[in-house]
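Problem statement: downstream parser choked on a complex file, so we are re-checking the raw output for the adenosine-3',5'-cyclic-monophosphate run. The parser issue turned out to be on our end (a line-ending mismatch), but while we're here, posting the original submission so the record is complete.
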Amino acid sequence: MPHDVTLIATFALGFALAFVFGYFANRLRLPPLVGYLLAGVVIGTFTPDFVASSAIAGQLAEIGVILLMFGVGLHFSVDDLMAVRRIVFPGAFAQIVIATAIGTGMAMLWGWSLGGGLVLGLCLSVASTVVLLKALEERNAVATLNGRIAVGWLIVEDLAMVLVLVLLPALAGMLGGNVPGGGHGAPEHGLLLTLAITLAKVAAFGAIVLLVGPRVLPWILRQVARTGSRELFTLAILSLSVGIAFGAAELFGVSFALGAFFAGVVLNESDLSHKAATNSLPLQDAFAVLFFVSVGMLFDPSIVIREPLMLAAVLLLILVGKSLIALAVVLLLGYPLSTALMVSAALAQIGEFSFILAGLGIGYGLLPPEGLSLILAGAILSITFNKFAFLGADWLNGWVQAGPERKRICEDSRGAKLGLLHAELDAAHERAEAKAAARKTLSPDELVQRFPVFAQLTPEQREVVILHFLPQSAQPGERIIRMGDKADAAYFISSGEVEVSVSGRRIHLGPGNFFGEMALISGQPRSAHVTALDYCSLLKLTTRDFKEIMDRYPEIREQVRELAAQRGEMNRQPSAEPAPGDSRTG
Ligand code: CMP
């Protein structure tokens, strides 16, 4: 080949096979991602010379994880998580501890070291948020209470794993791994210091992102959205998500995944988060596919023949063990069986964090190489069979609901705690809606209803116009514009009434009207006084934004100019005849 086309080949082969296998998986009523994993296995097994590109595939997969975690962050709400905290924090914590202990014990029975066992146990104890979200989306259950509990549970697991990823390098020496530049068993104070430094870095990163982010990131997005260019907006989303993830990893030693997650969290507070989610979705989809393909590529199918018993044990822990632990924990916490079953089904798989953790474990010489193969095999099989976990949960749930006595014991008598979560979640949503309403100026439809002058714009153009408005209020008697002043803005009246006084006339303008345009057009000082008559809510356009909108949308410019000309004409007349569109009540 004339030049290196490994990247193109990886894309072409990865996408094409993922497409074919995904399609057939779908025909077989399996989730398409089973097809993507298999596509990866096929590429890895039958094209050994293609292995050179697995490094590239690995990096593409990393981009997939970044975008996926960014998406999780975009939809993540601290309020929602806090509303279900009573179940997800103790639940996830207990489940991780028990599952990790069982996994560690199992591996030590195989003769692995404590460190190796611990890494394996941790890898098996968490489930993939990405896989769960896809499963919930398919069942239309993302927004249900049980769905939110399951997602919250896995988010807590993700957060715990992030902590593990951060702490593992510091603890590797003590656990018998090889630490670059250090021997086994780092001295106690050295270890504590490393831990402290690592945690301080994470805290510093979190603080910077959560304090500075909400001020800066939505502002940047707003500026970009105002250009009206979808391309630039997508580019902004991409550079913010991948950029923050990369910066977090480089500067703070925080994982890509966590960095991207935080970037998403910060943006989800902004009123543009919906647009951001829509624009980044196709990219997320594409790179998520590559993530699953590259996981398949790393898989060594011979593990099935070499270590069938180990694999069976791993699968048993993922599919049955973890589910039973979660079931018991949720029931012990006093929640209904339907909630317990949903969490159990959600947990019966492993995914992205397990691979990342396993990779790190191998890097530190803690996890033996077959550990990675076992984890990958466990992931591929458990993700494939996850659908059946949900079907089983549904069946059991249906059976319980069908018997009045069973229903009373498993559901109704345990409804009180769930009701409490319901109420908290509802309250959280109300708060979120109130916050969004306070931030929002207008919807595109409202814009046209209130200001007919914008009727000719397309919905996208209306959205861009709305982004230029700055909400402002005025009290009765407040002088909004003083005659003879230099102009700096035009105003659209959303509600309330103002009085224009010029050359002995008093003209009242109400909702849907605008004022302050004449001086902006003519470059002259203000032609009249404008005073609020009652509480007014106004939408202000600064000079720059006014000019920008007039330049961009000639049809609006013509209407505004015409009205300004009529008003000017009227002001020059000695007798008072109101201009069209204006009301005279004074
Ligand atoms: P401007 O001159 O920038 O500031 C005062 C505003 O009052 C002016 O723009 C118009 O928007 C408004 N105005 C002036 N004359 C009239 C009029 N005759 N009828 C309605 N509005 C007017």
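For whoever reads this later: Strands lie at 470-474, 479-481, 489-495, 498-502, 505-509, 514-515, 529-532, 536-542.
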